[in-house]
Amino acid sequence: MSYFERYKIRTQRALNCKESLLKDAEYRFQQVMDEALTTHIVQYTKNGEFPDLKKNGTIRVNINDITNNDKSAYDEKKILVDKNADMDVGSYIWFNNCWWIAVFKEHQSLNLYKKLIFKVCNQIVKYKLNGTTYDIPVNIHNMTLYSDGMNDARYMSYGDSKCRFVIGKNPITENINVGARFLVNHDVPYRVTNRVDYEYNGYTNGSDGIMNFILLQVPRLPDDDIEDNIAYNNFGKYVDELFVGNDICYIGEENEYIFRTKQMISYQLET
Fold first, then answer.
1. Tell me: the pLDDT tens digits for 208-256?
2. Which of 94, 119, 258, 265 reaches 20 to 30 Å from 164, CA-CA?
């Protein structure tokens, strides 16, 4: 493209100097998206869409490293995308064989493009909802700071480590509430003790964004599927009033309890 052609693009239908400079800035951004080595075509989730490589569409983004990335930052990337793109806080992209989640959007003084900060998802957790198992990319980090992750009880010690999940909000993940259980790395079960889904989003009108969960390590249940990494969640079921067994059960003891539901079911609990 000649200099004169570029000049016509910048000045075409410009009413004044300010509008001419704005068109020039828009043209320069599109030139970066067309020619920069850091521009990539990636799969992504629209705002409120669940990440699924078989269903998600593609988009052109410009991916830049953020200086001073280290183990505490979990490898963050600055991503630029067209201002009209359906991408916002909570969206995912598939880049370099990893899922990345948008955790922050910077509101630009000039409406030329969207600038988002993405964090790498370092784990995939499985969540079973209505008989279907979903693979949810999460950014997870340890929150056990001031202890060795063990709690000494009356008869034994048990793990009480904590962690935090960062998950994009969509029709599947919005069903995760306090009490939900997850298995991490086919080994340690955690239970959600706190959910915050209002702190980070793209707008201020209650739009979808990211959800932060705090989870506490809990004992493993016999129904946990260790092999497939699926924690057991007894959602949609209830127990009637009758509860037969000792009122007090200490960790390390063995007691037998009977729950009366529509069908009589007996469980032996080892704590």
1. 789 999 998 888 888 888 999 999 887 544 444 555 666 677 766 777 7
2. 94
Are the beta carbons of 125 and 186 closer than 8 angstroms?
A: no
Residue 6 C-beta-side C-alpha neighbours within 13 Å? 11
Say how many residues make up the chain: 271
Is-above-0.90 flag for pTM?
no
Helices (H) and strands (E) in the chain — how many of each? 2, 17
What ranges make up the beta strands (E) of the chain? 39-44, 57-65, 76-82, 92-95, 98-106, 113-120, 123-129, 132-142, 150-152, 157-159, 162-168, 181-184, 188-201, 209-217, 243-244, 254-260, 264-270
Nearest to 114 by CA among 80, 76, 65, 86: 80
Q: Which residues contact 74 (CB under 8 A, 6 or more apart)?
A: 119, 120, 122, 139, 141
62: closest CA among 73, 51, 54, 87? 87
